Model the fold of this input.
Amino acid sequence: MQSDRGHWGSSTGFILAATGSAIGLGNLWRFPYITWENNGGAFVLVYLLCVAAVGMPIMMAEFLIGRRTQKSTVGALRECAGPLWGIFGVWGVLCAFLLLSYYTVIAGWSLYYFARTAAWSAAGYPGLATGDLFQAQVGNAGLQLVLSLGFSVATVAVVWFGVREGIERLARVSLPILFGILLLLLVSALGMSGSGQAFGFLFQASFAELEAGSMLSALGHSFFSLSVGMGAMITYGSYLSRKQSIVKASAAIVALDTGIAIVASIIMFSVIFSVAGMTEQVGASPVGMLFISLPELFYTEVPFGALLAPLFYILVAVAGLTSTISLLEVVTAYLIDEHAVERHRATLLSGAAVFVFTIFAALSFSGTPFFSSLAVFANKTGWFETVDHFVSNIMLPTGGLAVTLAAGWFISRRVSHGELVDGNEPGWFRYGLWLGFIRFVAPAAVLAIIIAVLLGADFS
Ligand code: PHE
Done:
């Protein structure tokens, strides 16, 4: 174990930091929005299956690879699976880089809504068409640049000081408050007239509507939400010491992450189906769902909503921050470990490089022809939606597939057994189950979905 590498302060600290990475805009913003785009029901079910059968085994694999090698993505894969596997490490670093470039923009939106709701709470909610407000703010180029620059600076600041003190403390305080507010919102949303319809939408599966493209989206999002498939959890695992049970930690992180995504969706859809005109507003800009639907709930339904609204949006920003730091950490740790760049320099370099691309993402909806035309896929707008699609549906599934193959077939069983099973546990159960999933079930599922999409040529 290298003495100059940081380590988590405690087991709880590690679980909170990794949960902080997993819980973020993926749960609150992305999951409800893509569930909407993929017609709910069957999509949600496929998503849950992907989380259990593919995402969770991969998370365990990433932690064990990181802890075993005490190295970040590239070095870790190279060391335990073989020299060629370093390429997939580089793929992961690139993925973190691209993901961060537009994730920062959404996090910036939550800062804007923090300011907006704080003003409404002070002066009274004007009851405006929140869909129009959202369109106006994403279209405002100057505002978008300021917001995303602000958020980038915050991310760099935390990584600069090292993850241990900052993240552990931040996650410890912010996650419980976020859970509390979501619970309050849930109770309020359940009392709304549209909540029945929301449950129907989310949990009544109609497989006739399920296309291969939706299955790929569900798979890709399970990686996105669990922060796997690109090395973030390898990197976090590399700061882990031997005492922690990887199996238990992974189970807790997966359960919390999935629970929050479902709760957020129940809340969001209850509002959408209850408030007149909301379906149209959200339909015009599904990407803004989190920011279009909830203000209504805070100011009309929730007890002390005026107090909680700004608090909620600032916590969305903090949830985003505990994720962006893990993304920047992937790139930074790569520079530190592979190119011997000193941490402060590495943080600044990677932060600045990512920000160049964040500018593209921030201006995607500005109507500037150059920036909105940076799109490769049909129906996608600018760098923002193009990269979101490319990262989630192409990079994460292929990266995840690489991790399953590396962990299942190329890392020696002695090593993976040693990392997953503590001396006196019934190893055959935990280890055998994991091995079966990581060797056969997970890669087969990922391959089957990718092949189905290729055959159907369904890339939209
Ligand atoms: N899991 C985070 C979320 O759901 C996003 C993320 C992906 C963070 C990959 C780190 C690595 O918001």
